[in-house]
Amino acid sequence: MTLKDVAALAGVSLGTASRVFNHQESVSPERCERVREALKKLNYHPHAVAKRLATGRTNVLRLYMIQEYPILPSTWGHYLRIIQGVICVTQAKGYSLELDICSIGDLEKKNVIIDGAGMSMFDGVLLLGSWPVEYWLIVEIVKNNLPYFLVNTRVPGKTLNEIEMDNKGAIIEAVRYLHELGHSRIALISGPAGQINMADRIDGYRMGLRQCGLEIRDALQRESDFTIQGGYRALQDLWAVTPRPSAVVCGNDHLAAGALRAAMDLGLTVPRDVSIMGFDNHELAQVTYPALTTIEQPCQELGITAAERIIALIEGNECENLRTIMPCKLIIRESTGRLGV
Amino acid sequence: MTLKDVAALAGVSLGTASRVFNHQESVSPERCERVREALKKLNYHPHAVAKRLATGRTNVLRLYMIQEYPILPSTWGHYLRIIQGVICVTQAKGYSLELDICSIGDLEKKNVIIDGAGMSMFDGVLLLGSWPVEYWLIVEIVKNNLPYFLVNTRVPGKTLNEIEMDNKGAIIEAVRYLHELGHSRIALISGPAGQINMADRIDGYRMGLRQCGLEIRDALQRESDFTIQGGYRALQDLWAVTPRPSAVVCGNDHLAAGALRAAMDLGLTVPRDVSIMGFDNHELAQVTYPALTTIEQPCQELGITAAERIIALIEGNECENLRTIMPCKLIIRESTGRLGV
DNA sequence: TTGTAAGCGTTATCAG
DNA sequence: CTGATAACGCTTACAA
């Protein structure tokens, strides 16, 4: 059932049928009505592909999940919430969302994005990741005139179309909070410093200490992976340092959960003997014992904003804020408190 | 840069250029070579949309995540692993994956699938969900001749194109395992029985008891939601029953984590006083204290199989197994054991 | 083996 | 306001 059939049934030309269906502009009420009836009767659906060919617009947004190895379940959960936000917007605005998962290596080597754009398979691209993106990739994208947004990541040292969490500010707040509880020897167990989010958290830790007038001691900083086991080992490590820390900020909830378990196995009571904080407000922060004080990120909002921005870019409504930082929120539970209480 | 340009540069006709690019069939080696050079020089990428219009094939797979409300993080994680499997296959076979999230109500009311198919936006559809799907929706899909597969869900009472986890078998194994540890009063804390997976797990629980020659007692079964809090309350409840259970099988790891905490707050030691089991092998199963014995599902394999099957269907290679059940795996950790040990 | 031309279903331009 | 008609870029008979 094509528009032609509709036109035939309504006894009008193809052009008129198209006008009625699309804008109902400049067509007599009478014929307009006839076309509408035909549209109804034939249960007409426009052929999306033909429309795309004719208009040059696909109404497809492609989202690349840039996946580090090994795959981390914590990242998964984080990404999916962001994607949910993206979908809210794409659905509302009549876009389809194509999803792709690839390593940063794939993205750069095979040049999949540019190729896809060359084949005009999508109108814009969202790069969702946690590790730094190479500048030349973006240069390539810009050169091809393809609307893009970096989500939850960036190109170090450049200000581009990007939208991120305020990782740094969140940790500064965390350090201040611990300082207000009376802690002055605050340690850090971070994930890999090469990861963008983690780099910002490490930065925030140092800046927080500075703002509180506390000394920055290398011995109190541990770089681990993102795993529960990593957190476990790092806390054991940290406990060998003299003087010992009285509070530990962790790069994510998994590290914090591991640290918690290590503290327990060392015979410590949390938060009486040591305070421990996570980051992410992952579900597991609720099930540890004691439950983790942590930081919540506005994942869905991030996705929503990213989608709105790129659609604005696609549709030519220049969007002002090319760089946006979303604030996070401190969630206080049981794993932090005053020493000895 | 279109094929026309390539043809012009190579000094051949459009048709010949197309033939070289697609099948390199029936074209003289010499001109073939010329075309190839032009292809290279112009860095030709076929216009996907035009190709689609000409061939009538989109090479797009659409996956609907059927989302219950409220949104459960545990479901998210589960789905994403499945999707990852799907993407492995679509990437390898040259398909794009479109992702949509909607409630089952959306799907049925707005008839989005049929409309999308009518607009020929995709070649096939994967329905990923956990709640029963209405038969008429599938009837509609079949009527429209659209290849489909149900993933992780089904239409109750019908055998259709579907692929699921062996939830039932897994719980039977769990009950047997507990029975071998000497337990005879085995309780169940399930999620909503309306959810397909949970219904199967409840079935499995009953069948497992029967196979072990144990009595099925309603007082030892609690239907909760999927939350940690739900598990907490359910275990408290269960503890008021006389005689008390000595082991509790939970519908998922969240319920089990809540039950664990409740047991702790009741002053019990797990597994000495009571054994507790989860389901999913969610990350939080590693961080509870004690760590949860649970059941792992082959999520990625499920996705891979589903994608392979539907692509076979699309490409007309009749796939034999229209219904497939994937086996799960028992993961033994610390939360189960013999009574009093 | 090759070129020509007729689609594929729209949109959009341009006379009338 | 309306109807032809030319794109859009490709595939695929069909004819040469």
Description:
The structure is a homodimer of 341-residue chains. The first copy, chain A, is of the alpha/beta class and 341 residues long. Helices cover 46% and strands 15% of the residues of chain A. Chain A contains 14 helices and twelve strands. The longest helix of chain A is centred in the N-terminal third of the chain and has 21 residues. Chain A is elongated and about 90 Å long. At the A-B interface, helix 4, helix 5, strand 2, helix 12 and helix 13 of A face helix 4, helix 5, strand 2, helix 12 and helix 13 of B. Chain A binds a DNA duplex (16 and 16 nucleotides) through helix 2 and helix 4.
Topology:
Two copies of one chain form a homodimer.
Chain A: H1 3-10, H2 14-22, H3 29-42, H4 48-55, E1 60-66, H5 73-93, E2 96-102, H6 104-109, H7 112-118, E3 124-128, H8 135-143, E4 148-151, E5 162-165, H9 167-180, E6 186-190, H10 196-211, E7 221-223, H11 228-238, E8 247-250, H12 253-265, E9 275-277, H13 284-287, E10 294-296, H14 299-314, E11 323-326, E12 329-331
Chain A binds a DNA duplex (16 and 16 nucleotides) through helix 2 and helix 4.
